[in-house]
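[09:14] KT: can someone run the structure on this one? pasting the chain below
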Amino acid sequence: MKVPLRLNNRSRVKGDFYARICERLRGKFPGSTRFILGFTDEQDAKRVMEVLPKRFGKYKLSLHPDKTKFIDLYSKSGQGDRSFDFLGFTHYIGKSLKGYSVLKRKTSSKKFTNAITKTEKWIKEHRHLEIKQLMKELNIKMRGHYNYYGITFNSRGLHSFYLQVKYRLHKWLNRRGGKQVWNWERFVLLVNKWLPLLRPKIFHSYISANPILEEPYAGKPLVRICGGAGR
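[09:31] RB: done, C-alpha cells below
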C-alpha cells in the first residue's frame, strides 16, 4: 500500500527518499512525502486505513485522495496493480529458485531511461578526453549505478544498462572529429581487454537490502531522520 502525504506546498525534494521514523521524534518533512505500508493480511491494511486519516488529522496532515491506494501484489493479471515503484525500483512478487514467492526489485523503467540519458549526455560532453581518463571516469559512474541497483533478481536490468552504455560509448567515440577509427571489432577489444568497461555486479541480497543508499544522480538527500539504532 502506498500512502503519500501532502504536508505543505514548498517541497524541495525531487524523487523518493527513505526515512526511518521513531515515535515522538521531531522532524520537518517536505511536501508530498510518500509512505509505503506493507501488510500480510488485507483486513489489517483496511483497519489501518480507517484510523490513519484521523490520526494524521490530529497533526493537521492529510492523505492525498488521488494517490492513496491499496496494491495487492498477489492479484491476478488484469485485476489491479501488481507492483509499485519506490526509491528507483519496481517492487513485485516473483518466484525464487526454490519456487517460493518473494518480493523482487528491478530498476524502474523511468529510472533506467533517466540513467541512460544522463550517462549518454556525460559521454557526449566528455568524449574528447584522453581515452584512458574517459574510461576511468565512466567506470566510476558505472560502479555507482551497480552499487545502488545491484540487488538480487535485478541482473537483467544491470546487464541492459551495461549494453546500452557500451553502444552509446561506441557511437560518441566515433564522433570525436576526423575519420571513424573505432570499428566494432577494435572497440570490443577496448572495452573488454585494453581499458575494460566495468561489468555488472550484484552487491546486495534481497533478504538484507535496506534501501537507504543515495540514488545515483539524485543529488544530496535533503532529509534523513534518525533515532536510536536507526540510520
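[09:33] KT: thanks! The radius of gyration is 22 Å.
[09:34] RB: yep, looked fine to me
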